[in-house]
Give the backbone structure.
Amino acid sequence: MKILLISPPTLRPLRADMSDLFEKESGLYPPLGLLYLAARLQEEGRHPVKVLDGPALEPIRKPSPRPSSTETTRENGGVPDRPGAASYEAIEQEIREFRPQVVGIQTLTFTLIDALAVAEIARRIDPEIHVCLGGPHVYLYPQESLGFPFIDSLILGEGEITLPELLDALEAGRPLEGVPGIAFRREGEVVLTEPRPLIEALDSLPFPDRSLIPYQRYYSVLGKEGLMTTLLTSRGCPFSCIYCGRFHIGKRFRARSARNVVDEMAACVAMGIGELQVFDDIFTLDKRRALAVCHEIVRRGLKISWAIRSRVDTVDPELLDNLARAGCRRISYGVESGSDEILKNLKKGITTRKAEEAVRMAQEAGLTVLADFMLGSPGETREHVLRTIEFALKLRPDFAQFTVTTPYPATELYLEGLRQGVIARDYWQEFAQNPQEAFVTPFWNEHLVREELLELFRLAYRRFYLRPSYVLRRFQRLGSWKEFKHAARAGMRVFRVANRQGGAGR
């Protein structure tokens, strides 16, 4: 069966906390999950597949007789001011040209409206198209997701094994009950099959096929000029931070071998890609494996720049020195707060002292440091937030990202908010049943109201990035005119975030 895998365009994303602007401006990243699915289907060889990345698709630029919303109204036919962002018309054209029998759509809660719009387009083009959704949102809300009549099935959890089996069953006309890890409707009732076990042998999966997308269009504002892509070397995180919502991949840490990881890195280099963003939750969780990856890169003489995500309690000088020697240029830490009390409330399992040590050690090893902070967490007052901003200045990371704490669906933070009455009702379930663009995501309004949190959010960006000492330090480290232009563009993006007026949902 011909299948078209779609990452929907972000024309109507849910507004969370103004960090949506920072995320939008921070870069354009490939749909790695869909590329894994496509590679598995190609390996099986039974089902022709095409991948369509909405955010990277060239728009159709023509006048539109009916603008979709005030956010996306443009002379080019509803396309927002973002390079490469596709209109729904462009998606429709791709579906008509490929004529798939199955359309699979990546679905996040924050892009649910766009995902459903794409599903409706597919069904309107051909009522016989089987529409399947996958992703974190449908994993949490299968009943609500199948309440939409134009959705036929869901993949719940990892899809590399499940999707080929689902397509085989559809093609053969077999009952779908025999496919683990899916949900579907039968005679108006939602059926959930037995759960699919997590994939243990990640080395057995083929590499994502980046040739299926316009891989030259992806970039990171924190990276250097040149081609960039993303990489996943492990799945799962064993920690219990109350705000984390990555239920669909499980808590058990599963990792690829060092040789397998570096084989994929080498394949990327062969495509002309010079920068990798490693999207593991914690690349440094298994020190022995992380060192093995570094040693294998050095042994092969592979010239690649890469960046990782980490935790402040999983690094030491030996590991950081080896990362730098192997071409790792940037490390991201979830620092979250400048208060040990608030870190304890978040069940983060770290201390501010540990954060200071980790930032210092990374910079001594020659790594650039990005520190993430959350504003408005449980127990946090205005004084706590101001302390976090001061702590960010004291740490002196090369970059900082601030977000307003958002209780995501089904997280311990969200459930505790409902129990305490800090969150008035189950907003997320209501949104899953009836998604509206005007929906405003809940914050943790225990001590600070929404307007205060957004004002502190802007203050944090201004205090950190608009300091003369910071600007001078950054420009002193620039090595070329290209880097200067890149930094100037990044600075303008930060300036827009820091000075944006209004708040979420407006």
Notes: Residues 3-192 form a domain with the Rossmann fold fold (CATH 3.40.50.2300). The radius of gyration is 23 Å. The chain is about 40% helix and 15% strand. The mean pLDDT is 89.
